[in-house]
Amino acid sequence: MINAYMTTATGTLTRVSWNPGDPLPDTVIWVDLLSPTAEEERCVEVALKVELPTHEEMSEIEASSRLYQEDNAYFLTAAVLSKADTDTPGLDPVTFILVGHRLVTIRYSDPLPFRNFAMMCQRQGFSNISGEGILAGLLDAISDRLADLLEATQRNLDKVAHEIFSPRNAGKTHRGIDYEDILRRVGTSQVLVSRVRESLLTLTRLSAFLIRPAEQKADKALARNFKTVARDVLALSDHALFLTSNINFLLDATLGMINIEQTGIIKIFSVAAVVFLPPTLIASIYGMNFSVMPELEWQFGYPFAIGLMILTAIMPYFYFKHKGWL
Fold first, then answer.
1. How far is the C-alpha of 180 from the C-alpha of 186, rounded, in Å?
2. What is the spatial distance between Cα 192 and Cα 197, in angstroms, rounded to a whole number?
3. Which one of 94, 97, 233, 265 is least enclosed by Cβ atoms within 10 Å?
4. What is the pLDDT of residues 128-172, one digit of tens each?
């Protein structure tokens, strides 16, 4: 699908219909290809006189394959997060091609920043009416989305930490704290943050490529915008690194709590075994079928055996309490 955007007299962008085979209007400055067909790709290549990368070429991880210049066209590929609100967030390559003052975007997914920016640039007051300005706006929208995801992850991790370390939860067993659910939430946060970090890595390379010294001086306002995006991406990378260390700490803390709970359960069974061992020994002795056993003929033999078993069970219990082992 081809989405073409052209400038209007009011200084905004509007979406226009452009069918393959029709000449490209001069006022079109942004051509957005969403899962394009081979015919749509050829149409754009003929209209703009550039060779578009294939989906396989966009997925390559080498920097030289993602950031390069051919004639007067700049090819920039970044990994953009998609399906971030689901349990399976993914990374999809998106290629930005600057041809003169036109921008071409090629993508095979529909991330939220693209939808939001497409609506924003059609509103009154959008000032960056150029391919470079749209590129800066898209990169800013992508970084804003990543920042929102990191903030949401930070809030979720704060809730997890409160559930683990809250004094109100002290002494609760597995029935009071669902450690399995906590581990699942921590793991989900780790997957999301790792995807964000990978996306930020590609954006860092892309930003460095944009702000490098060039033969032609760029517009000062656009240069400031690109530098702002580069600083934002760097700050988000540091925050994502902090969240990664925080996730590792919470994972270790959760596993430690589970280990403490399991140790407590094993201790209870161990104490129970020790407490009931002397009564079992006494009962075993009096359960022997010997002909000579004085207590069998004694009137108080049965109460004596029962009392002895109770006494030998109570004594280890109070001894453990006195030592502080319980």
1. 10
2. 9
3. 265
4. 677 888 888 899 899 999 999 999 999 999 999 988 887 665 555
